[in-house]
Amino acid sequence: MIMFWVFVLTVSMLLYVLLDGFDLGVGILYGVTRNEERQRMMMGAVAPVWDGNETWLVSAGVVLWGAFPVVYATALSALYFPLLFMLAGLILRGVAFEFRAKAQQMPAVWDISFAGGSLLAAFMQGVMVGALVEGLPISNGQYTGGMWGWLSPFAVLCGVGLCVGYALLGACWLVMKCEGDLRDAAYRLIRYLSVGLLAFLIVVFVYALVADLRVMDRWLERPYLFVFPAIAAIAAITMAAGVLRRRDHVPFPMVVIIFAAAFGTLAISFWPYMIPFTISIEEAAAPHSSLAFMFWGAGLFVFPIMLINTAISLSVFRGKVVATADHY
Q1: Is the pLDDT of residue 102 over 80?
Q2: Other C-beta atoms within 10 Å of 256: how many?
């Protein structure tokens, strides 16, 4: 039962990062786009799926609350403020998304809100990942870092890096979904964002070595972790070839593989801890009776239905979008 819920949590988090990642990335790129037609096409590219993508964040939160309550309580105590900022960004983005389509006055307010909410949510997610990688101050299962214990230069660096990564996801999604000038602009952005993401990874790796972060020891203990960077490198080369040859359906799947490889690297680096390196999976898990009770409801029905719904949504709304007066 424990491993089943670890699997559900892992899939939920990965799908959220990939699916809402391109939504947030498109929102970030929306902020640097001034052409009205391009903006309308960008919204149309994510309109049918963006709210469904966010259900995976809810799924991850519910699994943490029910199956791993120790992690839920400890992580929320430590990351209370970045979580609040992230949720505020997601709410602001959602409201702006709806209001911008109908706004007759001051559309710039909703443009800024849409882009700003996307940027804030992405940045805070990166900050939280950075804080976990660097290590939270936890003693006897209790968070002891105070109000700002999660904030550090490394966490901020990870926040900036995830914004760049999400923007790259968004640009690849626009290449796959759009035509004309917007697609050409997205192709150009992919080149710059790819270089930016590579620079971020180099800086983070050097920082981790200099700071002697504990996660680096796992790379020495587990050499098979280098398989993931190798997979990411092959995907990056394939993506570059697809961009050079203007194959619209190549960049997005390849950047998805890159993100999945990075996610797998972190997950196995932390194993068997859920909060590195203080609370293990066994220590965090709820009693077997609770896990079994959840399985017969959420595990057996809700989770598979969500997977099927996501697959159907992406399939139904496949293909290119066109600029229309209404983004729906």
Answers
A1: no
A2: 21
- pLDDT confidence of residue 325: 47
Taking residues 269-285, report their average pLDDT: 85
Report the Cα–Cα distance between both ends of the chain, in Å, rounded: 41
Rg (CA), the chain: 20
**H helix runs in the chain, sequence order:** 2-30, 36-46, 50-53, 55-67, 69-78, 80-102, 107-134, 153-177, 180-211, 214-221, 227-244, 251-270, 281-284, 288-294, 303-316
**Model pTM score:** 0.91
Rounded to the nearest angstrom, the gap between the alpha carbon of residue 212 and the centroid of all alpha carbons in its chain is 26
| Structure token digits, residue 272 | 């068997």
In tens, the pLDDT along 16-56 reads 999 999 999 999 999 888 877 888 888 888 888 888 888 89
Q: Which among 66, 127, 101 is positioned nearest to 291, based on CA atoms? A: 66
Peptide bond just before 277 cis, omega within 30 deg? yes
CA distance 206 to 94: 37
User: For residue 190, what are the contacts with CB-CB under 8 A and spacing of at least 6?
Assistant: 168, 171, 172, 175, 239, 243, 251
Q: Which of 19, 17, 14, 16 is nearest to 314 (CA)?
A: 19
Over residues 162-221, the pLDDT tens digits come to 999 999 999 999 999 988 888 999 999 999 999 999 999 899 888 888 877 777 777 777
From residue 271, alpha-carbon distances to 10, 26, 274, 280, 294 in Å are 12, 32, 7, 8, 23
Residue 112, token pair as written in the block: 């800024």
180 Rama sector, left if φ>0, alpha if ψ -120 to 50, beta otherwise: left
